[in-house]
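sorry to bug you again but im stuck and you know this stuff better than me. below you get a single protein, a line of residues and a line of whole numbers that encode the local backbone shape. mainly i need to know what kind of three dimensional shape the backbone takes. anything you notice is useful, everything is just below:

***
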Amino acid sequence: MVDTTMPTGQARSSVIPMIIIGVLFFIFGFVTWLNGALIPFLQIICDLSETEAFLVTFFFYGAYFVMALPMSFVLDRTGYRNGMALGLGIMAVGALIFIPAALAASFPIFLAALFMLGAGLTILQTASNPYIVMMGPKESAATRISIMGLINKGAGVVVPIVFAAVIFSDMGDTSPAALEALSAAEKQALSEKLIMPYLYMAGALVALIGLVKFSNLPHIDPEEEVTEGADGKTSILNFPQVILGAVALFGYVGVEVIAGDSIGSFGKALGVSHFATLTSYTMVCMTIGYIIGVTCIPRFISQRQALLGSAIAGTICILGVTLSSTESTLVADVLIGWTGVPVVPNAVMFVALMGLAHALVWPALWPLALEGLGKFTAQGSALLIMGILGGGVLSLTFGALAESLGAMQPAYWIGLPCYLYILFYALKGHKMRSW
């Protein structure tokens, strides 16, 4: 590689690299949080059950688990910058597969396209997250990741609104009952509306390959990091903070995806008329959480304290979702009623508030888990990325629970052990340097 080496831990100008990585994080958010709007949409055009609908997240996030370790070895060969370009190319192929999927209204082809998108995102995430961690002092790594999270979740706010506007623009009645009453021909026409958005997405991804490939992104060498206490360690499995961190990310991504991708279906089941845009509620809450991270870490709170607070707040939200009313809108009236934004039942509002509760888990956990890994950083990053499988497994389990229980509200109890484990990691797990 011909990149100029940029030693870690030293002061350096990182504005341009941050902007470029920020664009990539916007793409992460755009592609990822489109699933929240896509799930109820595919339920309509493919006549899916709750469990089948959450196969969307299972295939998408399953790609992270299957591809993470192979992609870490690819990064060792290509370097971070070329790896990012490769990931964008794989994603462009996935976006193009949506065209035959939409023409055939075929759920299996949709799943293949989603897996390909997830595979491309895997290499992007494996490269970009440690890149952000190592771009400056480790004490402020959570702040840098929070900035990326703001961009990521900002995309998540925009996507459901844009998706609903594009797909349902010429439909008069978009209530759940009216959409379920569509004829086969009308469903086919609705499916074909996906073609142009994903065609534009493929074009944008190809353009970004040029931005990354020919940019000034500097090379960062993780082996330059001083690795205290790593003497005699010959495998990534010798670092408990990474293994335990991957489990924590498994639980975190699970509840994050459930909060973002189920809220539309939950609102639809409760008869909320604007169910297609409800993912934006969760994303706005997450954005607020990231703003707190940017402004408060490490000035007022440490990365460990942010993780601890997230776990406690998430636990409170799970209690709120499962035990509060599905008819009263009191919580939403108090929190957002004054803004003019349409209110939602209390239980739905607590699902959105889960986004605020766990927003800082990802930015706080990464630097804690990668600390001191040195030459094992790429493998450690891959293990953490494998934890993203939680988004697929737990959301699918959530869908199966909701279907078996005949209601979505009690299925949210699945989030409680996830937040409790994150609490353990914040208190003890991240400190462990030996088994």
